[in-house]
Amino acid sequence: MTAPSPFLVAEDLVAGYGEADVISGVSLSVARASLVAIVGPNGAGKSTLLRALFGLLPPRGGRVLLLEEGGSALDVTRVAVHRRAALGMALVPQLDNIFPNLSVRENLELGLGLRRPSGEQLAEVLELFPMLAARAGTRCGTLSGGQRQMVALARAMVRRPRLLLLDEPSAGLAPSAVEELFDQLAAIKVNGTTMLLVEQNARRALSEADWAYVLDMGRNRFEGPGPSLLADERIAELYLGGLAGAPAG
Ligand SMILES: Nc1ncnc2c1ncn2[C@@H]1O[C@H](COP(=O)(O)OP(=O)(O)OP(=O)(O)O)[C@@H](O)[C@H]1O
Ligand SMILES: [Mg+2]
């Protein structure tokens, strides 16, 4: 087996708000068509890291690179968000990721951009999310939390992104909805989409992740295959609320 080729690489990324650096020198690598998880305590800087990777927050230092299979590296550190979207990057933010007053279909169409022909990509995404196909005309404000997260995910998927950045998609969901969401992420991975997933539901995320990072106080403390981190006593003690099997903290 050859080593997996990286798609997204961050080198020594520094980002923050006002005077303070929140991310202070984070490096990471996300292999093509893999699921990489970032876990860590509240306030560790996970959302800030995703914003910096996507360009919503201009990094103060370091680089963000997209590596093409041919070997060429594209430095996107200073590239505008809409250009990154055109390059195949998509972010599903932690909060306010759908329009509650619009229907499922309208939310997906907005994901595509209004001037684009929508039929084929919309149909493709509804096939991936049959639950939404049945509710295409429903106003999103009346959906359950799990259904809304599916809309947010589907809204990002309509553009056929190559790299999905996901900020706590399972937050606030009932256990059955969490399971459904992780099944959906597995299906998206099979599709060949690369994913970088920030999760509060750390045990579940680590068990699924090909590779994972533990972010704490703006730095990477640990990295490794998700299941190995999950089995690591120090990590369980420090970040997962103790022994394996205990409720995720
Ligand atoms: N818009 C902002 N302006 C100023 N400070 C901010 C802003 N957003 C976040 N911060 C600060 O940056 C730090 C990291 O926040 P961030 O949201 O990145 O953490 P997180 O790891 O995503 O936390 P959580 O698990 O609670 O989502 C916190 O101290 C927070 O107060
Ligand atoms: Mg966050």
Concise overview:
By secondary structure, the protein is α/β, with parallel strands linked by helices. The protein has helices spanning 46-54, 81-86, 104-112, 119-128, 130-133, 145-157, 175-190, 202-208, 226-231, 233-239, and strands at 6-17, 20-31, 35-39, 61-67, 73-75, 89-92, 163-167, 194-198, 211-216, 219-224. The chain is built from 10 helices and 10 strands.
Largest sheet, strands/sense/barrel = 6 strands, mixed
Strand segment count: 10
SSE-based structural type: alpha/beta
Described by the principal axes of the CA atoms, the overall outline is globular
User: Helicity, in percent?
Assistant: 25-40%
In sequence order, what are the helices and strands, one letter per element? Answer: EEEHEEHEHHHHEHEHEEHH
> Can you give the mean pLDDT?
91
Which parts are unreliable, with pLDDT below 50 for 5 consecutive residues or more?
none
By CATH reckoning, the class of the domain at 1-88 and 162-169 and 196-249 would read Alpha Beta
**Corresponding CATH architecture of the domain at 1-88 and 162-169 and 196-249:** 3-Layer(aba) Sandwich
Which small-molecule ligands are present, each listed once? adenosine-5'-triphosphate, magnesium ion
Percent of residues in β-strands: 25-35%
Count of helix runs: 10
Roughly how many Å is the radius of gyration? 18 Å
- CA-CA gap between termini: 36 Å
Going by CATH, what is the homologous superfamily of the domain at 1-88 and 162-169 and 196-249?
P-loop containing nucleotide triphosphate hydrolases
Sequence of strands across the biggest β-sheet: 6-7-8-3-9-10
Oligomer: single chain
Q: Do you know the CATH topology of the domain at 1-88 and 162-169 and 196-249?
A: Rossmann fold
